[in-house]
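Ticket #4471: structure output looks truncated?

Reporter: J.K.
Steps to reproduce: submitted the chain below (281 residues) through the standard prediction queue, then opened the result file.
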Amino acid sequence: MYRTFIIILQKLRLLEKLNMVVTITKNQHQFKIPIIAGTGIDFLNEQEAWFDYIIDKIKDINDATFIDIGTNVGQTLLKVKSKYPNAQYIGFEPSADCVSYVNKLIKLNNLFNSEIYPVGIGNETKITKLYSYSSDTDQAATIIEDFEFRPQSKVNRITNVPLFDISALKLSLKDSVFIKIDVEGSELEVIKSLANIIEEKNPIIICEILPCYTTDNTYRIERQESISNIISDANYTITQINLNGKLNIIKSFPINSNIELTNYLFIPNKKVNEILKYTND
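Returned output as attached by the reporter:
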């Protein structure tokens, strides 16, 4: 019913005037979703089934800290909390519009042990630019200028946002840590910032890395090679996540234009056999 109603509003170009709260069910948990001028409608459609599969197979998240770098409007927050309501959730998001929305989502659903920091994560603390390509809560927003390699992508908004080295925030983390990175191009700086956490906690890391498209995109290729070297030197194995959640070990990031195969699981070498057994059975 909700979907049909919203499709009609979209066709009538009235969606930006819509403010309401709808209820959805994820993993037998009900959540209240604020729809604010169109923001929130993506919750009405199931996305990234591979992520649900991965976190379903990794059972000890309920007693862990889940760090979500690139929270956007809280898609991962609800997925984690629907499966593991007791998990400590810490989100990072530089977009003020997204942070405002996620705080409403947390309050509306009384999400226990959940917090969001209104900052981006990088290997230095500074004010930087956030480049958006569509809405104020654009999932493709990035702090890397001219990062998009697709000709049709044009920046329509630039805002000043705070960037923090994560070590400056003095986080209180549980013994077990899981990390998701979805930062549209600044993965290298994030991973450098996470160096101490990676060394001390050996977290499993889910990371989106957008494709290079062609061999001409040397900027992306060089950054991906740097990530690969850092992860390997930290005694991790890189696996590519298929759309069904299955994992394939890779030695280097592929050069292609497949936007659907952009997610990777970085696994501490000592856990590789265990995780592959869980996820590929």
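Triage note (M.O.): checked the attachment and the full token line is present. The longest strand covers residues 19-26.
Status: closed, working as intended.
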